[in-house]
């Protein structure tokens, strides 16, 4: 059964220069324990969909169901805890006046996770899981590198013990070694705790190796949805073929796959 | 001819709550005019701070201590006064920051911010001229509706659109050196490819040199003439791009290459343990002739 489903979801922004149809009539479902990758062109509505799932934005049309209940537009605390976001932009998502530790701790206090005395240690443990030393708790966000901030975002979301994690470009600022470690950690947690991921990214090589299924968006519409292996070996939509054909690669085998797919256009 | 940028023995440390921590331990790095150089390596190893030193920003930060020589276009940035140093930013050298929101002002429209950048070069530029040039530049980075974007505030644009705006702003004054810190992370691969091609064109047409900082080794391979690999504040390997990719000599570089996820899908790569070999001396590949 699906943990989350979105049904005929649309979002239109009104601007002085007219309406922007950011998301148009999108439907899909994610099963418990699944990792669904969301890819597509820049501005195609991926973050807007994430924000509607999180309850940050209200849909113009359509419904979102979680655990077989329709989600109200004003979320209850248990929903806010169950659905956590790792934001695309690590700097703007951290309060510059709060220490890293205080930022991570905020969720624990809000949702009453663990006893008060143990929370500061929980914060250290959460940071440790993403490869950051406990002393970083006292630092300001501005004293961290881009990749370190991104890991704080992941630690903060995981510390809230969510069921569904919406990850918006969670590893784009990490070197490939740290990225591999964080992706392995996410994979392990998903298996161990039956977590469900919606994984938004432009990195198709990452998608190939972590996602069960892939949803491809273009101009606010869902143009293709399928099993990862099938998307990468026999993409149906020309837009998907074009995307895979543009991936920068490092070895000959990859180059061959890319050229084969590009050749079919 | 001398190099456009020549860095020797650069060190950097921060004074903090836990005392003094050294972050850069003596970096040598040079870029010729029109050359495309990539700086790759560990997260937290000192790539962004190096770029901020080249821009002269960290020299103005109270908690930072910078030493060593940074020559740009025949002048030593570190010993320059704050004013002429600031005048170089956004004109002769410009930067695409890793974090779009840190360089775009949330309270001004994109159009107004563009005009500000262009007037750093040409103070008297008319509103009309600014708009025309900004529109042309936005089209070059494949923004479909430049008029909407110029009248928008950053929060009304997607992450990738903001990043393209920054790229366009960084290039609009034809700088001699472009510092590009992760310019493609928020872009889809087709736009990323277009952006790289655009940056490549620009380099060729205007002899702009580029320091590209990126974790995407595929992008680096396709873009750069030469590569520096940095680990914990030290350069561990340097050479022409092909040599680094075909014959990585340093243990850290080899570990990096092995950890790149592949679109052919062999699963997530094994993560090698951090090894003492990562601290081995620098490997230098001879220049291709
Ligand atoms: N608050 C807003 N007001 C007006 N338009 C908006 C607003 N937020 C987003 N948009 C527009 O909606 C569209 C979709 O934006 P969204 O951020 O969802 O894209 P995205 O797929 O996440 O792109 P990226 O990969 O670049 O992050 C864009 O055209 C954007 O300009
Ligand atoms: N203001 C500061 N005070 C103290 N330490 C700092 C400060 N700014 C940066 N650092 C530290 O300096 C080191 C280098 O940071 P830098 O931002 O250059 O990393 P980077 O190589 O760009 O990493 P990433 O790939 O994650 O962006 C990091 O360990 C960071 O925590
Ligand atoms: Mg987005
Ligand atoms: Mg950085």
From TrEMBL, chain A:
Keyword Transport set for record: yes
Protein origin, superkingdom: Bacteria
Protein name (database record): ABC transporter ATP-binding protein
Start and end residues of each ABC transporter domain: 4-244
Recorded topology in the membrane: Peripheral membrane protein
MF-aspect GO terms: ATP binding; ATP hydrolysis activity
Primary location: membrane
A single cellular component GO annotation: plasma membrane
UniProt keyword annotations, A-Z: ATP-binding, Nucleotide-binding, Transport
Family matches, as InterPro entries: AAA+_ATPase (IPR003593), ABC_transp_ATP-bind (IPR050319), ABC_transporter-like_ATP-bd (IPR003439), ABC_transporter-like_CS (IPR017871), Oligopep_ABC_C (IPR013563), P-loop_NTPase (IPR027417)
Location in the cell: Cell inner membrane
Taxon lineage: Bacteria, Pseudomonadati, Pseudomonadota, Alphaproteobacteria, Rhodobacterales
A GO biological-process term: peptide transport
From TrEMBL, chain B:
PROSITE patterns reported for this sequence: ABC_TRANSPORTER_2
Membrane topology annotation: Peripheral membrane protein
GO biological process: peptide transport; transmembrane transport
Family: Belongs to the ABC transporter superfamily.
GO molecular function, one term: ATP hydrolysis activity
This protein's name: ABC transporter ATP-binding protein
GO CC, alphabetical: plasma membrane
Main location: membrane
Top-level taxonomic group: Bacteria
CDD domains per the UniProt record, alphabetical: ABC_NikE_OppD_transporters
SUPFAM superfamilies: P-loop containing nucleoside triphosphate hydrolases
Entry annotated with the keyword Cell membrane: yes
Annotated Pfam families: ABC_tran, oligo_HPY
InterPro entries: AAA+_ATPase (IPR003593), ABC_Ni/Peptide_Import (IPR050388), ABC_transporter-like_ATP-bd (IPR003439), Oligopep_ABC_C (IPR013563), P-loop_NTPase (IPR027417)
Alphabetic keyword roster: ATP-binding, Cell membrane, Membrane, Nucleotide-binding, Transport
Localisation: Cell inner membrane
Organism the protein comes from: Palleronia sediminis
Location of the ABC transporter domain: 7-257
